[in-house]
Amino acid sequence: MNWQALRHNPSLLIGLVATLAFALLGVVSIWWTPYPIEQVAIAQRFQGPSPAHWLGTDHLGRDMLSLIMSGTLTSFVVAALGVLIGVAVGVPMGLAAGAWGGAVEWLVLRISDLTFAFPAVIVAILITALAGPGETNAIIAIGVFNVPVFARVARGGALAVATQDYVAAARLAGHGNVSIAWRHLLPNIMSLLIVQGTIQLSLGILAEAGLSYIGLGTQPPATSLGLMLRDAQSLFLIHPWLSVVPGLTIVFIVIALNLAGDGLRDAMDPRLRHQGLAHGAG
Amino acid sequence: MALVEIDDLTIAFSGRPAVAGLTLRIDRGDRYGIIGESGSGKSLTALAIAGLLPDSSTVAGAVRFDGAPLPEDERVLARLRGKRIGMVFQEPMTALNPLMTIGEQIEEAIVLSEVPDVANLVVPDLLDEVGLSPSHVGRYPHQLSGGQRQRAMIAMALASRPELMIADEPTSALDVITQRVVLDLIAEICKRRQMTLLFISHDIRAVATLCSRVGVMQAGRMVEQGAVADVLKSPQAAYTQKLLAASRMDRRPAPVASVEEQDLLAVMGVSRVYAQGGLWPWRDPPLRAVDRVDLTIGAGECVALVGPSGCGKTTLARMIVGLDSASEGRMLLDGVPYRGRDLPPGSRAAMSLVFQDPFSSFDPRMSVGTSLAEPLHLLGVMSREERDARLREAVEAVGLDASMLTRYPHEFSGGQRQRLAIARALVTRPRVVVLDEPVSALDVSLRGDVLNLLARLRAEHGLSYLIISHDLDMVAAMADRVLVMEAGRIVEEGRPDELFARPQHSLTQALMLARLPDVA
């Protein structure tokens, strides 16, 4: 991975720049938004785009741009924390499965089968029933959904790396499974994990939007892109603009993340890199 | 009349030439061999003749097939390839489609070649010609052995009755006995069909056995070409002379009278049994990969374990070094008994292993110095100065510079990596080093250097070696004692000169017969 890879791979560049732009938009909303998002001004509701309100106002007269900025932040934070939970729990599970094999591997695979069987929505409903709706619960639900994904990716990568001679050499040098997983397996599957992380981030943003839309995620007065869609749905025929803006934002973020993920995979996978040369070498 | 003419061919990848100014002429009926080490551009030359160069390459110069330049149009080119050029690749497992039976693949090749015969009538003849039986038609590639797969590839290449057959290292993935059989098969077919052959190899002896004319390539340039007899008898280019010298295996002098009576390593009745049959283990008898093997290695002795692939020699080596545990029997290293993985750390330091493939034996994300220091872990806590001193000593012993330790594996060539692998094996100052095919992944020109290094280290440090190999010449040059292994058992044992002069067991005889004749 270097700058040259970026230049040769325009989709990676576009994906990364767009992702960073959206993330920045969200981060800025922590300190500054054009209008406070709690500011309700019924007199100014349903305004179209204007110099005062670039993206117009919603049914409560709140500034749409401010809502989008804040909503993007919520979506990113929820999805990123969900991915983080998945990485923190799933990757050690997968590495353990790869390094020990046998009964440990069986256990890890059955646990991930079990978790796979519960979609994020079901987990979210379960958590909501127990603890009430909220962002934290959305994060936990998305995290639980991510754990088996990362466990399997880590295990698959670790199995491939574990057959290499340098892992055998480390065993001969007296290193145990933990040390081998940390020193050799993890660094060599890092690129796989980064690519998978990017893709899971986009899925997480979709999941957060979905959970907020059905009312299990972010609660007002905080906002998220899914919540904005939910608020706008009953007005869709009269004021389609209110649904189009958050909807398109979600679409663009997800496309940007997918472009970045695919681009990263191309840039990091040595088998795809220099395919021409490798083919004719000898 | 020339079948293939190449004029001043240059193939470059993003500005860097991989083949430069190559001129080549292959007459009809010639058997032309290209020798060169990996990266010398010999495979690219073959791909250029078949019009199969990757899109990322820029090509200058002319390639003429049968007097006409290669067609621009991809479909016409594909038809030319299908009808007039047959190709055999290095690794038949990846060149064959795993989802189609051998028969279907050969039939497909016949249909694509548009020869007006009925495919299913020709298939049996082709199979017969390459020495496969009709029962192989319905099998999938994974159900065949390496040699059988390569035969199937040759049958596919022959399907269109090509005028030119391109064989790119067709035997380097095969073991010695199969290699000889496949080479003989190719020679026989070329003679019978009067077919032109382009044979690519890094093994000068394979080329000498098979070809009538030879071209020597180095770093993308053709340094010498001519009739095989002339080139090999009086090589002009310095590189050819070096290659020829490297292909001769002279006996490395054994350190005098260093072999003590006492056994350093003893393997006693060791077996490794794998259960077969999955859910119904009683259906198939368990596979005895290693079957009640006894062997001893004296201090300072060099013992070689020889056998075809799949005979269990690598499994035995893995148990000896402690990567795997024996199902039965036990081993003694300097008086310490063990069964495999339970080898105590102190004893692990007294033994090390050099892997076959220098490219996978170093972690690409770790500096070479860190990799080399890993085994020092076995000697307990060590001060930084002592650690650095040990590393420097090991690296300098293999003829490399200590400043290289901060670099990463991809910056080194195969030969340097194998030296570093040997340095890693030495860093704990072991008494026994197990060498698993230590030079078979290296280019011929580098093998001599690495073997000299191993012989010197043995003399200087009083090491004992256990060499695992199928290369009889290398074994004859290095070993004090040779053990021949077949199907998990040791079938013959003796001093290399005596054993190879009068082989008793049928496997030893087969191995001797499969040896390619010496050049010059």
Terminal CA distance of chain B: 30 Å
What top-tier CATH class of chain A fits best? Mainly Alpha
What is the CATH third-level topology name of the domain at 29-50 and 73-247 in chain B?
Answer: Rossmann fold
Q: Name the CATH superfamily assignment of chain A.
A: MetI-like
Per CATH, the architecture of the domain at 29-50 and 73-247 in chain B is 3-Layer(aba) Sandwich
Q: Can you characterise this structure?
A:
The complex is a heterodimer of chains A (282) and B (520). Chain A is built from eleven helices and no strands. By secondary structure, chain A is mainly alpha-helical. Chain A has helices spanning 3-8, 10-31, 64-100, 102-116, 120-131, 135-162, 165-172, 177-213, 225-233, 241-268, 275-280. The radius of gyration of chain A is 22 Å and the shape is elongated. Chain A has a single domain (12-44, 51-271), classed as MetI-like (MetI-like fold, Orthogonal Bundle). In chain A, helix 3 (64-100) runs antiparallel to helix 4 (102-116) and helix 3 runs parallel beside helix 6 (135-162). Chain B is an alpha/beta fold. Among the domains of chain B are: 29-50 and 73-247, Rossmann fold, CATH 3.40.50.300; 257-339 and 432-439 and 466-520, Rossmann fold, CATH 3.40.50. Chain B has a six-stranded mixed beta sheet with strand order 6-7-8-3-9-10, sandwiched between helices. In chain B, strands 16-17-18-13-19-20 form a six-stranded mixed beta sheet, sandwiched between helices. Chain B is globular and about 70 Å long. The two termini of chain B are 30 Å apart. The chains are: A mainly alpha (282), B alpha/beta (520). Chain A binds chain B through residues 164-166, 168-175, 183-184, 187-188, 274-277, 279-282, and chain B through 11, 13, 18, 38-39, 42-44, 47, 53-57, 90, 168-169, 200, 321-323, 345, 348, 352-353, 355-357, 360-366, 371, 374-378, 424. Chain A: Pfam families: BPD_transp_1 (PF00528). Chain A: Residues 72-261 form the ABC transmembrane type-1 domain. Chain A: It is a multi-pass membrane protein. Chain A: Keywords: Cell membrane, Membrane, Transmembrane, Transmembrane helix, Transport. Chain A: It comes from Devosia sediminis.
